[in-house]
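Possible regression after last week's pipeline update?

I re-ran a chain I had predicted before the update to compare outputs. Posting the input and the new output here so someone can diff against the archived version. Not blocking, just want to make sure nothing changed silently.
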Amino acid sequence: MKRLLSVCLIACARLPGESGAPDATSLMQESVRAEDVNQLAAASWLGREDIRHFAIAGRKRKLTGWETYEASILEGRPYYRKIAIAGRPLPAKQASEEDERMDAELQYRKNTPRKDQTANDRRIGFGLKSALPAHAFKILRAEELRGRRVWLVLGTLQVDAPEPVTTSDGGLSSDLLAWVDQDTKLTLREELTVRKPWASLRPGSTVILEFDFSFGPRLVSRILLRSAPNENGRFTETEQIYSDCKKFGAESQIILQPHR
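New output (post-update):
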C-alpha cells in the first residue's frame, strides 16, 4: 500500500511540462486507435489463466483460492474452461462437468444468432475508449518501463462523467495512470483508482493491468484487483496471470477427450 500511495502522490503533484511531450488528450486518442488495431491481432491469441485470491491483513498475505482456466475460441469467441484447482487437475467427475458445460455453450453459440447471444463471461473491461471523453488528461513525465520509452499520463475522472453501467465500463469509474509506449502508442501498464462503485469494486479499490509484447501483438499478462480496505485495514486481492498463449483460428476450439 505504501508503494501505491507514493505513486498516487507523484501522479497528483503539479509537475512541470515534459519538454517535447505531445498533447495528452491527442496522445490518448492515438492510444485508443492503436488499441483498436491491436485488438484485431490479439483476439486470436489465448492461453492459460491462473486466478489467485488473497486476503491481506498487515504484512500477512493468505492465499484463499486458486483456479486455472484454459482458453480457446468457441464459434468465433473466447471460452474459458476450468482445468485445475489449487494447481491440481480437476477430478474426473468435475472435469466431465466442465466438458458438458463447454459443449452446452458450443451448442448455444451455434444455434443462437450472434446478435441475440448473452455473453457467458465473468470478465470485466477497462478499455480506454470509454474513458477518453470522461477524463481530463495530463502528461506527468517521460520514463522507461521494461526497456521501452513511455509517457506517464494521468487521467482524472471529470465530475460530469457518465455513470458506469455495464461490466465493460471500468474506465467510467476511475482515475487512471497510463504508461503509453512512445513508439507504438499502446499502453504497457494501467493503474485505475476506483472513484464510483462499479461491478464488485468500491471507491478506493485499485485495478492494475500489465501487458506483454513478446508474441507480437500486445497481450494482457497480468491483472490485479485490490479491494478498498475495510475499517480494520484489511483488504483482498485477485491476481490473474496469463501464460502459454497460442494463436487460434477464427473457428478453432479445444477437442474434448472422453474421461475414462
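Follow-up from reviewer: compared with the archived run. The first strand starts at residue 45 and ends at 57. Marking as no regression found.
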